[in-house]
Amino acid sequence: MTLEHLPALQVMVPLAAAPLIVLLRHAGFAWALAVAASLFAFGASLALALEVSRAGAISYAMGNWPPPWGIEYRVDALSAFVLVLVSAVGALVAPYARRSVAAELPREQHYLYYAVHCLCLAGLLGMTITGDAFNLFVFMEIASLSMYVLIALGRDRRALLASYQYLILGTIGATFYVIGVGLLYLATGTLNIADLAARLPEAQATRAVLAALAFITVGVSLKLALFPLHLWLPNAYAYAPSAATAFLAATATKVSVYVLLRFYFTVFGAPLVVDALPVPQILTGLSIIAIVSASLVAVWQADLKRLLAYSSVAQIGYITLGIGMATRDGLTAAVVHLFNHGITKGALFLLVGGIALRAGSVDFGRLRGLARTMPLTCLGVTLAGLSLIGVPGTAGFISKWYLVLGAIEAGQAWLAALVVLTSLIAVAYVWRFVEAAYLSEPGSGTAVAGEAPLAMLAVSWVMVAACVWFGFDTSFTVQGARRAAELMLGAAP
Amino acid sequence: MTPAQLIAAALLVPATGAAGIALAGRWPNLREGVTLAAAAALFACVLALLPTVLAGGVPQLFVLEMLPGIALGFRVEPLGMLFALVASGLWIVNSVYSIGYMRGNDEPHQTRFYVCFALALAATMGIAFSANLLTLFLFYEMLTLVTWPLVTHHGDDDAKQGGRLYLGFLLGTSITFLLPAIIATWALAGTLEFTPGGILRGTASGSVIGGLLALYMFGIGKAALMPFHRWLPAAMVAPTPVSALLHAVAVVKAGVFTVVKVVVYVFGVETLAGIRAADWLPAVAGFTIVAASIVALRSDNLKRRLAYSTVSQLSYVVLAAALLTPLSVAGAVFHIAAHAVGKITLFFAAGAIYTAAHKTEVSQLDGIGRRMPWTMGAFTVGALSLIGIPPLPGFLSKWMMFQGAAQAGNGMALAVLALSTLLNAAYFLPIVHAAFWRAPREGDAPHGEAPWPSVAALVVTAAATIALPFASAVPLALARAVGG
Amino acid sequence: MPAFASHYTYWITVLLMAAGLYIVVARGNLVKKLIGLSIFQTSVYLLYIAPGKLIGGTAPILSEAFKVYSNPLPHVLILTAIVVGIATLALGLAIVVRIREAYGSIEEDEIVAADRDAGDRE
Amino acid sequence: MKREPVLRVVGKLLIPYMLMFALYVQFHGDFGPGGGFQAGVITAAAVIFYALIFGLPAARRLVPEALVETMVAAGAFLYMAVGFAGLVLGGNYLDYFVLDPDPVAGQHRGIFWVEIGVLVTVSGVMLKIFYMFAGRGRAV
Q: How many domains is chain D partitioned into structurally?
């Protein structure tokens, strides 16, 4: 019974955990429940991914109303892949959060944090799994609203402003999205994504469809922080509680990328988006600006969290660059990087959370000589940083490989050159940390308390190990991404 | 043990050694014991592989598939065998030397030093035995990263600056040129396996191949082809054992090893000989040889002079490989071994002088040969070998290169070889002259030899330099096997 | 009626949309921004609801007496969207209240200036 | 306004009818306009009305914050419990058809419980928002 209902349980278990946590109101129970729900979601996503790779796409009719009338949950190669990423990060952040949240939040807010964590997880999973365009909007808002709360829980008063700005921009983004969906509904009379895809060719070039494409592109781009719509991101990441930052950075923008992919390649289809309209050119141009400018800005940040936030903007640029290529290798690169960057940034922000706990802040002045008191943490940051650069033997390398391969096979050697040259800027900002931690003498503000608590460190290192593991064994990431890319380009059976 | 197990052991012994060193960090004697044991065990493993390779066998080990169609795999062919032999053999000597040097100079962070050293050797073995370009690239980058803490060992501003140059040049060239070259090769040939005769034949036009060759040659920054040589002098801020084993043997030889490997097994000698797009390479290598020699001549700092000498000697290998005749390729391979034993001796001597007398400049060395006869004697042997005085090994490799150049009918190469031999003599012999025949300066504090492990090590390498021509059957056989 | 007049609901939609966005962008007062945001969202409700209405149609209740009825789906969707909008507005106002407690102001430029001063003092 | 007898009397008279009207809207939702949303808001409005007349502390005594928060969670949880009930009874998630041997009765039953969940949550949320904003401001 359970197996066939996994698509529903995948979302509903974390969603139901949230009100239960509020009912229980006890920090310890809340944490345990959040961990249990996150772990369940992770297990479910793995089972779903396995099932999809074995037997093809799964469709689940909510309330037994068959699609396209009812809401359909649909797991295919692409969404299964993203589900695994989101739920894996959720399952790692939940156990990590205990010590981090205990240190950063007042006690009466603890249960609230875990409830919102579950809600956010459910929202992101729901966005990924649903096969209904309007249902996607609802989950998008569930996820977004919980993110605003998570960010506003940050200790610094600037967290409030960051949350407010994100709320304004995020709501505009979601509303743009829902306008686009509305136009599509007017043009086709359906909201089911698969049904939309089937009916759109009849309405192909009408102005309503093109307007819908434009609205959805802008709306989702706001959510995924595509340059120049990324302005909310650095403050939001910098001032949110550490555990929340790690969770958001690893998942939120990635799920939005998934939505973009879903609409471009499933709903509108490559012939319209790629061949008839200059979408790839625009995406490529914006991605290049994002990569170069955000990487350069990252180099000059005085705060490690902000540095990593700007690096995220740049790394999202790599993902959209892959989408802009719109070839099999390009899309593979985009999907692989979506995963690899998710775990890399997750690992980095988890470790940085440990530093923030011990050092009080992650200002570069406080990081001087840190390797002496927190050797394992610093080694972890360095390894994950290498993955950010794309050094072979780390997950980031696999992404770079496919990006460059995609560019070369598309005959765009200059893009390949751009990808490798901008990796060098990543070397510059990663090495700012390495030099500060390893080569500088400890300053007056350096932490002396030693390593982060074992639970936090262990979870962070699981993530770091994943960064290295997926640099060697790519059978899950590359093959999963390749199947997803083939699905998007319509080559799969 | 089967050959495959031996390959795995050669990779794992230094890696587990590094872990052991880290664990034994609190007890210096135990720690150094672990280092020596790992070095000896590694050399034994490599040596045990030798009979199979000499008999024409090709031991293989495939670990897993990293990317669809590209494995993380290892295959021992003659060139890698020679490189592994040289690096692992000299690690033993260098470990002995390091003990004397690091303790004699009271260096900080000694555990980190030995750990990184062992990891560097593991990476070197990975490079030597790699079966394809991806595996090679993986260990190539790993070698850069694990040697960075060694370069910046002192942690002061000089070290930071040197470290930045080191990392900037090596990572920069490898990421911007080498990685795209590898990916382009994959896109063109559909394979990255090292194959005798090359994998690129007939896959692209001559100009594309030529462009690819340029990407490879400048992308392999460790080969220090001008203008990407600046990292090597910058790396001299490291403690001398690092300069000796890594920046005279393991790292730089990894560079020229990769060059030879790419020329022979990726492009294929015949493919390159068939197109004119590769003609620029001997010219660039020749320019590097002469220009670096001139810079060496003008450098007063001893380690800097040796570093530029290394830059110049590395380009011998590139030049010889680029001549594309069997004899010159064999010469290139043999020169990897010949230069290794010679140059490590010179660096050992420089380190011993620093330890005993705290002198770093050539102009301070007047009369030092009387106080440190063993050290300067060994230095003389190394210098004579690198100049190419018969019957020392440097002569043998140069002789093969001369013959190869003559076969290829490349007058420019002949001229460069002759000119650079004179320049070699010009920058080495004055040191020897000053050390033995000039009177010591006034006011120098009296001193004797460096600590005994250092002296023992440099005497051993000098003896190896002298012995190499008499025991040259093995290296020559391996070299000829590569040259075909 | 000419086409542009018969589609007057769209004109109202566009007007609300533009007005809402303009307020969000142009006003520095955090509460006014939220009001703008709400107006902007309201335009979407209209965009969905208006086309669902049929002239002469009844509520969508199955009965022999009525043949023409309005499409119920947009109403359901927009009911959800309204709830989401209220949740957003409530959360936004809650954050503004806390911003006022933390900064003593709800004018964006004053808040930014306060942060800059705090940054200078550090 | 606590001292205004007219308001107090009218308020006391009106509030029961407001609550009653909320229940009417709630249960008539199956057959006509109405349902949990509207009923929830009307219920909350009754309490807010009480708070306006008798003061916030009195309203807080009547409907404590903890109860409000519990209502928010409990309603949502009830909704989801109906969904899980569908699963347990062998249907899909939120499947109302299986809630009763007769599918149409099952639909009724499902909607009934879901709407109660909505009622509880919506009135909870409305009160929560009211308390949140009414309780602040004076402190600054």
A: 1
d(CA B159, CA B166) in angstroms, rounded, equals 10
For residue D58, being part of any structural domain is answered with yes
Read off the pLDDT of residues B334-345 as tens digits, 9 standing for 90 and up. Answer: 888 888 888 888
Is the CB of D77 less than 8 angstroms away from the CB of A19? yes
A222 touches chain C (CB under 8 A): no
Tell me the residue range of the domain where D38 lies: 5-135
Q: Which residues of chain A have a CB within 8 Å of the CB of D95?
A: 63-64
C101 touches D at CB < 8 Å? yes
Q: CB–CB of C99 and A161 under 8 A?
A: yes
Residue C47 burial class via C-beta count within 10 angstroms: exposed 0-12, middle 13-18, buried 19 and up: buried
The residues in D 15-54 lying below 8 A from C, measured between CB atoms, are: 33, 37
pLDDT band at A1 (very low <50, low <70, confident <90, very high): very low
Q: Where are the domains of chain B?
A: 279-484
Residue of A187, A188, A73 whose CA lies nearest to A135: A73
D22 lies in a domain? yes
A67 with A192: CB under 8 angstroms?
yes
Residue D62, domain member (yes or no): yes
Q: Residue A492: its pLDDT value, please?
A: 43
Which residue type does B284 have?
A: V
Contact call for residues C68 and C57 (beta carbons, < 8 A):
yes
Percent helix / strand / coil, chain A, rounded to 5: 80, 5, 15
Letter for the amino acid at B274?
G
Backbone angles phi, psi at B65, to 5 degrees: -90, 115
Q: Is residue D39 scored above 80 in pLDDT?
A: yes
Q: Do A157 and C102 touch (CB under 8 A)?
A: yes
* pLDDT (0 to 100) of residue D41: 92
Secondary structure class of A444 (helix, strand, coil):
coil
The distance of C122 to chain A (nearest Cα, Å) reads: 12
D79, part of any domain: yes
Task: Choose the weakest-confidence range: A31-45, A211-225, B394-408, C63-77.
Answer: C63-77
How far apart are the CA of D130 and the nearest CA of chain C, in angstroms?
10
Classify strands A72-75 and A58-61 as parallel, antiparallel or unpaired: antiparallel
**Per-residue tokens: D38:** 């509207």
- Looking at chain B, how many residues does it have? 484
**Domain count within chain C:** 1
- Whichever domain contains C47, its CATH number is 1.10.287.3510
The rounded percent of chain B whose pLDDT value lies above 90 is 11
Q: Whole-angstrom Cα distance, residue B307 to residue A403? A: 37
Question: B196 with B181: CB under 8 angstroms?
Answer: no
Question: Hey, how many other C-beta atoms are within 10 angstroms of the C-beta on B298?
Answer: 11
H or E stretch at A58: strand A58-61
CA-based end-to-end distance of chain B = 29
Rounded-to-integer distance, Cα B460 and Cα B211, Å: 44
**Taking CB atoms and an 8 Å limit, are D129 and C90 in contact across chains?**
yes
Range of the domain at C84: 3-121
Instruction: Name residue C29's beta-bridge partners.
Output: C107
The enclosing H or E element of A74 equals strand A72-75
